[in-house]
Amino acid sequence: MFSGDRETGRAIAEGYEAFEAEDWPRAGDRLAAAAARLSGRKAKAAWFDAALAYKFARDWPRAYETGKVAVTHVRRGREEPAFWNLGTAATVLRDWDTARDCWAGYGLPPFPGTGQIDAELGPTCVRLADVGEVVWAIRLCPTRARVINVPFDPSRRFGEVVVHDGAPSGERTAGEMTVPVFDEVALFEPSAIATLSVLVTAAPGDLDPLAESFARRQLGFEILASRVDLCDCCSRSSIRQERAEYDGEQRLFLGAGEADARALLEAWTAEEPQTRSWTNLHPA
Prior knowledge:
The chain is of the alpha+beta class. It has three domains: 3-106, Tetratricopeptide repeat domain (Serine Threonine Protein Phosphatase 5, Tetratricopeptide repeat); 123-189; 195-283, 2-Layer Sandwich (Alpha-Beta Plaits). It contains nine helices and eleven strands. It has helices at residues 3-20, 24-35, 40-56, 60-70, 81-92, 96-106, 207-216, 232-235, 258-271; strands at 123-127, 134-141, 144-147, 161-164, 171-174, 177-189, 195-202, 220-223, 238-240, 248-255, 277-283.
């Protein structure tokens, strides 16, 4: 065996050992070093896994550079995950031309135009990194979504745009609609809308018109009593979200500026002052 073969074999072994240990930077480095000396299927696998390791490390420049090599080893239009991984890295780095090419290379319908992709691809759910909370969102491109829930964790915000993974990790059903849950991989665009907390009192059914008034203004509205805590295993399964009716004293989280929130709350109470009231509006 030539010394170059031994070095390549050692790099592959060390790369996959690091991969198993979730030492993502080392896994990426060693697999990329080996891939550069390989050809054929072995090169294809090593470049893909190197790019994947850098993605797991959230080292987007390296995920991008190794991903660009990885896609040269696969065929276009065959739903090859190498294109999806590169498209994700290109999106985080805001290289929209490369992202568009990757979605076409994966086999998706084309996204015409130039610049940032802001399509309307329907609802989905995203599991927020670090906090583990699953929120509803609207997909803007194959790997970006805007959060339309008010997260219960006040470190996260209504209106954030996140980059999510391409492999579903659970699903949520509301009414007749079932959507996948994707894991967040990066915060793409923070939200300027801080979360507000308010205590309201309402008769049965009275919270529905308040929620609708916030929705019409494209603002966030959450009832804290609707929170359901799940273990990680259950969170990654199929969950049906049942609609419940809340009345009496309830704590709300609002994704709105204070002036807008105050105006909507006052208009709501003015309609039924005998049964509706609110107090203690403040940052959560």
